[in-house]
Amino acid sequence: MPIDKTPEENAILFVWFNHYAGVLIKTPSKTLVIDPVDIRARSFPDADAILITHEHYDHLDPRLIAEIQKATDCMIIADAASAQRLQHAIPPEKLHQIRPNDEIKIGEVTVKAQKCNHPATTPVTYIITSEDGVKIFHTADSLPFPELADIGAKEKFDVVFCTVGIAPGTSPETGFEIARLTKPQVAVPYHTNSKEYQQEFAAILKAEQPRTACLIPELNKIYQVSKRK
Ligand SMILES: [Zn+2]
Fold first, then answer.
1. What is the pLDDT of residue 228?
2. For residue 222, what pLDDT is reported?
3. Local confidence band at 229 (pLDDT 50, 70, 90 cut-offs)
4. CB 113 within 8 Å of CB 140
5. If you measure from the C-alpha of residue 228 to the centroid of ligand 1, how many angstroms do you get, rounded to a whole number?
6. How far, in Å, CA of 97 to CA of 112, rounded?
7. Ligand 1 centroid – CA 183 distance (Å)
8. Do 127 and 154 form a contact (C-beta atoms < 8 A)?
9. How close is the Cα of 77 to the center of ligand 1, in Å?
10. 0.85 surpassed by pTM
């Protein structure tokens, strides 16, 4: 499943690799893995960084992260509770704790944490800006929250990942609400094992916000998203 191609200029590639928030993102220069669980370490031979949103079992697997880190020497960026669980498994110089509004550079790629509306200890969401300025918003398994409107207006996202199931309180409607508030070019319904939920999300989006395209991802398939014109 590693992505062996490079995105075109002003574009990124992504793969959704589990039924939760597991996403692999490839920019022209960097490979980022978010919330890897239910997958083999060798799927990420070229990881530059692993990003963890919160400590729940479907997002944080310390043994797997340690294995990927050892094989690739990648950087780990994690919310405080997850970072604490990782501190004995990861070399201290490779483990970076992040809080909402903190920003960390991975070469020319920027990772910024934001608030996350989810019942975990210190959950975060991630804004990732590629070296070409492609803007990705990985909202972990957040429910909508009002500040998303300001974040969306400021960042002008190319792609936003929207949770439509499994996590407490989430549904195609709450996923749509995230897309409605953030107004991306492309919205991706994820964090579900229900195709119906993804299609329901697509239907609401089409009816209520036709200017945002819906991309229903298949697991382990590569998608390219280009910067909005
Ligand atoms: Zn989850």
1. 84
2. 96
3. confident
4. no
5. 29
6. 12
7. 23
8. no
9. 17
10. yes
Q: Are 54 and 138 in contact (CB under 8 A)?
A: no
Q: How sure is the predictor about 1, in pLDDT bands with cuts at 50, 70 and 90?
A: low
Beta strands in 73-129 (DSSP E): 75-78, 95-97, 103-106, 109-115, 124-129
Buried b (16+ CB within 10 A) or exposed e, 88-112: eebeeeebbbbeeeeebebeebbbb
Minimal CA–CA distance to 50: which of 20, 1, 99, 90? 90
Cα 142 to ligand 1 centroid, rounded to whole Å: 9
| Alpha helices, DSSP H, located in 87-194 | 148-155, 172-182
Query: Token digits for 42?
Result: 């060798």
Question: Could you tell me where the DSSP H helices lie in the chain?
Answer: 62-72, 80-86, 148-155, 172-182, 195-208
pLDDT for 61-99, tens place per residue?
A: 999 999 999 999 999 999 999 999 999 999 999 999 999
Give the distance (Å) from ligand 1 centre to CA of residue 182. Answer: 20
Cα 229 to averaged position of ligand 1 atoms, centre (Å): 33
Question: For residue 140, how far is its CA from the centre of ligand 1 (angstroms)?
Answer: 7
Ligand 1 centre to CA of 19 (Å) is 9
